[in-house]
Amino acid sequence: MSNSKGPVIVITGTPGTGKSTHAQLVVDESPIPLQHINVGEWVKEKRLYEEYDEEWQSYTVDEDKLLDELEPLVTTGGVILDWHTCEMFPERWADLVVVLRCDHSKLWDRLEKRGYPLKKIQENNEAEIMQVVLDEARSSYAPEIVVELQSENTEDLETNVGRIVAWISAWKEDHS
Hints:
Blueprint: E1 8-13, H1 19-29, E2 35-38, H2 39-45, E3 49-53, E4 58-61, H3 63-76, E5 79-83, E6 96-101, H4 104-113, H5 118-129, H6 132-140, E7 146-150, H7 154-174
Parallel strand pairs: 1-5, 1-6, 2-5, 6-7
Antiparallel strand pairs: 3-4
């Protein structure tokens, strides 16, 4: 959905892969102004959910409300959407979809440190092993805009942010 204000980038991956950290660093280093939207936080702040699931300790998102809320911002451009899933976002929205991946044992440790319940850790770990988010991205968007990046350490983080910022610079050149 290229526009004059900036690209729309979706950063997705299993919880614990570093989406929010990546998104904020990209915003900080981007050659053009970008707005980072942590979709999970947005859902809570704007009450874009149907209910809270105690067992999973998460909200059941009202997807229609969420998409209606995001549409004007995405249409304007210059946005990074950071969320653990991506297939609900219309294909026309995304200029780049970054899927962050992490070795399941490292992911397990990260989720334990967050205090996730065991059932939630197990489900997210299994999703990472089965590359659920990557498969969703590949089946929802054109292959040339989906990029898989490892996110296991600080070196990966720095390399990934550099690659995304370079992509934004190229986007800026193409749209000036």
